[in-house]
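protien #1 (seq + structre)
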Amino acid sequence: MGDAVARGARTHPGRIALDDGGGGLSYRDLDAAADRLARRLVTLGVEPGDAVAMLASAGPGAVAAIYAAQRAGAALAPLNPALARHEMRDALALAPPAVVLCDPAHLALARDVVGTGGAGEPRVFPLESRGAPPGDRRRGAGRAVADAIRRVIPSDGPLPGSGPDDVVAILRTSGTGGRARAVALTRRNFHASARAVHARLALGPDDVWYASLSLAHIGGMALVDRALAAGSRVVTRGEWRLAVLVELLEAGAISHVSLVPTMLGRLLDAGLPDPLPASLRCVLVGGAGAPPALVERALTAGLPLALTYGMTEACSQVATAPPALVRAKPGSAGAPLDGVEVRIAADGEIEVCGDMVARAYRQGGPITGPDGWYRTGDLGVLDQDGHLWVTGRKARRIVSGGVNVHPAEVERVLAAHPAVAEAAVVGLPDPEWGERVAAAIVPVVARKPGVQAIHRHCREMLGPAGRPRALVVLPELPRNPNGKIDRARLAARLSGSDPGK
C-alpha cells in the first residue's frame, strides 16, 4: 500500500506521469521531486502527525506535495485559492499547519493569509516551479523563489513515511450541510478508493486525465491519485479554465475529465468539437446532483457521460454509473463500488460503510457510528438492480403547514419547464406555515421565462405545500468554490423576494 508515485517509479520509471504543458515529467522525475520536497519538509521541522497546508493550483509542484507530505509522515491540508481570505484562515484553524506550501503564483497570497513566519506563525515555503510566477514580470522573481528553495538543505536521513492507517490528507468539506469540517483521510482510504474506481471505469496506463478540479477538493486529489496508481498520465494546466478543456478536447489530448455540473453546462454552452475525439472515453460528473435536463443535453451531444455519487468522508466516490449505464438509466448513480456497502435507512437516509470511509474529523469527533456505518445526510433509494438514485438532502426537507416537501422534487419539476435550465429550492421561515418554499431559476439561453407561466406549471405538477411562494430569475445560481449551490446565500437573496401569485 505504498504511494502511487513510488510504485510507478519502480515499475515504469520512464513513463510520463504528468504533462503541465511545458514538457512531460516521468514517474522517475516526479518521484525524485516528491523525495526532495519530503526531505526539505523534515529540514523545516515537520514531524509525523503534523499538518502541511498547501495553497497552489494543479501543477508538478502541487502533485509532488501530495506524496512528499506523507513521506515526511505528515498530512497534506490543501486550500482552494478561490476561497476568501477569512475562509482560508478558518480552514487553517481546522488543521493548524507546521508549514504552508505554495506555488510561486500564490506566494504573496499565502503570506497575506498566514504571515511572514513570525513567532507562532507557520513558515511559508515555495514549491518547485518550471519558471517565474505566471503574470509576474519583475526581474529576478523566479530566481528569488529558486534561491529560497535552495537555502533549505534536504535532510539526508531516513524519511518517516506513513502507514496504511496514518492520516495523509486533511480535506475541508464544502459545508453544504452546515459549518465546514476537516476530514482526516488515510492511505488505506485512498488505496481502497483508487482500486474500486479502477475496476468500475476500467482505468489503465493508456488513459490521460485532465486535472480539472482543485486539489483542495476530494474529487481533485483523488483524481490525481487514482490516475497515477493506474499508471496513467495526468494533465495539469493550473486552475480550471473552460478554454483549456476545449483546446485539449479539440487536440484529442485527453481520455478522461472530471467535472461538476456547472462546468459541464458551460462546456455544452461553449460548443463541443464535431466530431468528438475518439480518444475521449469518460466525462465523469459529480460533486453535486446533475439536473435531468443537463444529463439529457450531454447525452444528446454524444458525450460519454459517467455519473458518480460521493463525498469527502468517503474519499470521493461511493457509487458510479459508467457511460453505458447512464445511457440506459439517465440519472442513476449506478451500483456501489467494490468494497463499499450502501444501505437505505427507514427514513430514506443513505448510509455507507467500507475501507474508503474515513473514521474521524480532524477536530469534531468520529465520522462513523460504533457499527462502522456513516450516515450521509443524503436521501436515496436502491432499485431492483441495486442501482442508487439520490433523491435529496435530509437536512433540506421543508415542512410547510405540517407537510414534508423535498426540495429535489420541486427542483425537478421546475427544471422540466422548457424555459428553465437550472433550479434551486430552499425553505424560508413563514409565520403562518412554519416554512415556505422559495425557488430560483436560471433561464435557458435565448429564452425568457415568464414567472407567471412557471407558477402555472408548478400548480399543475405540485401539491399546494410544494409550490414556490417566492420565485426569482437569476443569471446563475450562487456557488461555493467546490461548485455546489451555496444555499445560505441563495436563501438570503430569496428572503427579499415577493411571493408569487
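ok now protien #2
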Amino acid sequence: MKERVTIKIPKELYERIQKVIEGTGYSSVTEFIVYVLRDLLSEEGLYKHPDHLEELTEEEIERIKKRLRTLGYLD
C-alpha cells in the first residue's frame, strides 16, 4: 500500500464534495480530491506518474500555489 498523509479541508467543503460525487464512479471524497489534484497538476505539466517523479522547481511550486490560491484552497 502507498504511504498516505492527511490533508485538512473545511467540513462544509467536504460535505459539498460528498453531494457532488453521489451517483458517480468515485468511491470516496478522498478519491475525488486525488483525481482533481492530479488533473490540476497535469494541466500545468507538473504531474508525472509516481514512478517517474522528479523534484519540482521553485517556479513550478509557485505556479501550483498560485493555482491553489485561485481555486480557494490556500489563503
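The chain is about 50% helix and 0% strand.
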